[in-house]
Structure formats: C-alpha cells, structure tokens
Specification:
Elements: H1 2-33, H2 41-57, H3 59-66, E1 69-71, H4 78-91, E2 97-101, E3 108-111, E4 119-123, H5 124-129, H6 132-147, H7 150-177, H8 193-237, H9 240-252, H10 279-283, H11 290-298
Parallel strand pairs: 2-4
Antiparallel strand pairs: 1-2, 3-4
Length: about 300
C-alpha cells in the first residue's frame, strides 16, 4: 500500500517535470526566433494564470452548480455524515461539506482548493445502491483527493497546458511572419543554411505537437491521481474489498449521469460518460480502466 502510494506520487512528479521541460523547450525555440528569449514565458504564464485563477478559487461553487448538487443536513442522510465524519478524522483533515445530486446513477466527486474549503458530493443512486463498506471506500477515495491536494495538481497541469498552447501559437505566428532571430551582444549569430533549416523543422514540429503532448500529459496526471486516490482510500479504510466492490458496481451500472459533461467528467470517481474500450481510449481518458484499478487494489 505504501509502495503504491509512493510510486504514484513519483510518477505524478515526473509528469509535471516533463511539463516544465516541454515549456523550457518551447521558450528556447521562441527565443531563437525572436528577441524576447527566455522572457517569452512571462506573458504566457501571466495570461494562463489569470485565466485559471478565478476557476481555481471558485472550483467548488462551479462544480456544485454545474452538477446541480444541493447541501444536505445530517438528519436527511445520517449514514453519509457518519462515514464522512469518521474518515475525516482518520485522514486528519476538516470535515468536508456534504452535498447530494438527485440522480439515480451512482457516482461521486470531491472539490475544493484545500481541505478547509472542500466538498464531497454523492448521487442519490450511490447512497441507494452501495452498502456501508462500499460507501466508505468511495468517500475515502474522494477524501484522498482532498488530502492529496489533487485540485491544486490538476490546476497546475491546466495552467501549464495553457502556457504551452500560447507559446505554440506564438511560435506558429513567428514562423508565419518570419522570425528575426535573437541577437547576442557580440553581434548577430551565424548559422549555416543546413543547420538553420534543421532548426526550423524541429521548432515547427515542436510547436505543432506540443499542445497534443501537453493534453496527453494532463490526462496522464489525472489517471495517476486516480490510482493514488484508490491506494490512499485503502490507507483510510484498511479494507480494499470495499472500494473494489464499489468500483465493480459503479462500472456495471449502465444508467447515465444526466448532469455530467466533458468539462466535469474528470472529477467523478468513475467516468460518468459512456466509455469505449481500446488503446486510444485509454490514452485520451481522464480515468484508468476499472479493471486496472481493481487489479492494483487486489495487489495490496
């Protein structure tokens, strides 16, 4: 269990590191084509940061509004509150606010920029169809997202995707209008025709492919955080069969979640949208395949 948690944290870190290397490569290319050099990243970061600042600080309100979730009192769903209270104590974080989505499809999500400003929302279908152990597994999974600051990690990934998209777009514009090449104090840089041509081809390929690579990295980060939340859930409940059984029930349920969409699908414990099998689907999915998650849990 500890080994799997550490492994998923390392892989998340390496993916974020690769993000930074990709940004560094784009900045270098942009610097060779213009006189801005390494300063090109500053406006890109500022623009992408402003674009995500509001959504980050309002992530819980936006998610709850889009999902039509309503706050509930303990007297309405006492068993839900008991589970949330107990797991919050086990996780060592403040108790998240509880919300319910009136939908018979079983699913759940957590949101909030930090443990002090967090919410857990579950559907009425989840409360009706899961037993106590399964509900604890699902709530512990969402509690782990809060404890592991996954909203912060995903926001960081989104910001870096935005930076990469902006830099790629600027590089394409420079190619279109013709770059002047950055000058050093000692005079203009001398390049051979062949070397310049190779550089232009590499720069153009990087500008075209970087947005796609960035999106794949963001999705990979999302999938690693799901594995991490699964393992962290077991850390809280000490009972892998609970989450395993819950995942099997949720994946076998064919009822669609009406309030879900592509913008919010990544938040839920399982993808609420209809999935298709295949290698390409795995690559472009925000969630790992259920069978892979179950296999990882069974190995604990």
């Amino acid at each position: 269990m500890y080994e799997q948690i550490s492994r998923n944290k390392r892989r998340s870190f390496l993916l974020i590191l690769f993000f930074f290397l990709l940004i560094f490569g784009l900045v270098w290319v942009f610097g060779q084509l213009t006189e801005l050099g390494e300063y090109a990243v500053i406006p890109a970061v500022l623009i992408a940061g402003v674009m995500t600042f509001i959504s980050y600080y309002s992530s819980d309100k936006i998610a709850l509004a889009v999902s039509r979730a309503r706050p509930v009192e303990k007297k309405e769903y006492p068993h839900l509150f008991n589970v949330v209270e107990g797991l919050a104590v086990a996780a060592g974080i403040p108790q998240p606010r509880c919300y319910v989505i009136d939908d018979s499809a079983p699913n759940a999500f957590a949101s909030g920029r930090n443990p002090k400003n967090s919410v857990i929302a579950v559907t009425t279908g989840l409360l009706d169809k899961l037993n106590r152990a399964e509900l604890e597994g699902v709530v512990a999974h969402e509690m782990s997202h809060i404890k592991n600051y996954d909203i912060l990690v995903q926001t960081l990934a989104v910001v870096m995707v935005g930076v990469i998209a902006l830099l790629s777009d600027w590089i394409m514009r420079v190619f279109f209008w013709g770059g002047r090449g950055r000058r050093r104090s000692g005079g203009s840089r001398n390049r051979s025709g062949d070397a310049g041509a190779i550089f232009l081809v590499i720069g153009l390929a990087l500008a075209i492919l970087s947005p796609l690579i960035a999106q794949l990295l963001r999705l990979a980060v999302s999938r690693k955080r799901e594995f991490l939340a699964d393992a962290s859930s077991v850390m809280l409940t000490r009972y892998p069969p609970g989450l395993i059984s819950a995942l099997r029930k949720l994946s076998a349920d064919t009822e669609p979640l009406e309030v879900a969409n592509k913008a919010t699908a990544h938040m839920y414990i399982i993808n609420p949208l209809k999935e298709h099998k295949g290698a390409m689907n795995k690559l472009f999915s925000t969630h790992p395949p259920i069978e892979d998650r179950i296999a990882a849990l069974e190995s604990l």
